[in-house]
Amino acid sequence: MFMAKKDDSAVDKAAQKVANAEKKAKIKQSKPKKGNIFPRMGKAIKKFWKDFRGELKKIIWPDSRSIAKNTGIVLLMVLVFGIVIYAIDQGLALGVSQLFKLAGKINSPEAAAMLQAMNFFV
Fold this sequence. Notes:
Blueprint (H helix, E strand, L loop, with lengths): L1 H29 L6 H22 L5 H43 L2 H9 L5
């Protein structure tokens, strides 16, 4: 029995050595050699244009009828939102002008006399 324990620990140590060696090999493989910048840059540019052409081939271009339809929808929505914003702007401008007229009336002597008569000023 005592011999079995020694064999188990020897196997465990051997397995650990193998695992450590595999880890070191993976670390060495994961760090590629960079080399000179000019060949790397040339390869990167070549790869970029190859990928770019591949992506352009995937594009589905719309036909002229759908372009005209979508353009009409966009112009119509711009017009509708423009009218809504214009109406809100005119309404707010009217409200502000009415507030200024009301403020002008309150500062008049007639308004002061009316406020005194209503006992607003104690």
